[in-house]
Design brief:
Length: 250
């Protein structure tokens, strides 16, 4: 099986830029989950805030964004703000964990708490079942896009979807449509016909976090209130056909 990562090359200057949100950190419900998905223009990828506390924020993304010379490149992280552009701030940003085989990485920012974080689905979560939302920055363009997608299933470290993510969405999130939990990380798509989307599976994410001492981001196993599968930006309100990718609200 041939595959192509959803990585978008960036020509922007590699400065340590941080657009800060002004409100207290909360786990975002599904219709606000895109606010936890950040852009990493220095590495042509997306990422998702999975933990934020006093002076520490953890971003989950993909390992292939750090291949070759990109491993030592200074990082830029941009955080979405529905209220408009915020300030730029130089903070400590470093790669704290990477697993090329699982194609997952963790980036630590020396600031927090920030405005939104995604809730990684807890251990024992029985999903996603059919529908999910794929979120990230196609072509490194603002704002992020939000695409409803049908899940074909998971096998080992990979979850497969019928729709393929766009370039630049690598490292972005796959959110379960029923709960808003993060259940996958965008990796790429196959070159076979028809192509399928490739995501790091929830099993792989759990193992990666535990292996690197970040199991605390999983929290407890108490489920949040479910949301209808059609909820969320760009949703069509229908269950038969997914809506095309649409910009997230600004």
């Amino acid at each position: 099986m041939f595959l192509r990562p959803c990585l978008s090359l960036s020509v922007r200057a590699a400065l340590l830029v941080w657009s800060l949100a002004s409100h207290a950190a909360v786990a975002a419900p599904l219709d606000e989950a895109y606010l936890a998905v950040v852009q990493m223009p220095s590495h042509g990828a997306s990422g998702t805030i999975v933990y934020t506390a006093s002076d520490e924020t953890i971003v989950l993304t993909v390992a292939h964004a750090f291949e070759g010379a990109a491993r030592n490149r200074p990082m830029v992280v941009l955080v979405p703000r529905p209220e408009g552009a915020g300030i730029e701030k130089r903070v400590g940003i470093r790669l704290v964990a990477i697993d090329a085989r699982a194609d997952l990485a963790l980036v630590r920012l020396g600031t927090g708490p920030l405005g939104r974080s995604a809730r990684v689905a807890p251990r024992g979560f029985n999903g996603p079942l059919t529908w999910a939302y794929s979120c990230g920055y196609d072509g490194m363009q603002l704002p992020a896009v939000w695409a409803r997608t049908r899940i074909r299933g998971s096998q080992g470290q990979t979850t497969f979807t019928e729709q393929t993510p766009g370039h630049g969405r690598s490292g972005g999130a796959l959110f379960d449509a029923g709960t808003g939990y993060l259940v996958g990380v965008v990796q790429g798509y196959t070159l076979e016909r028809p192509p399928v989307g490739l995501y790091a599976s929830l099993t792989s994410i759990h193992a990666f976090l535990d292996r690197n001492g970040f199991g605390r981001v999983l929290g407890d196993a108490e489920p949040r209130g479910s949301l209808p599968e059609a909820a969320g930006p760009g949703a069509s309100g229908r269950r038969d056909d997914p809506a095309p990718a649409r910009p997230c609200p600004q």
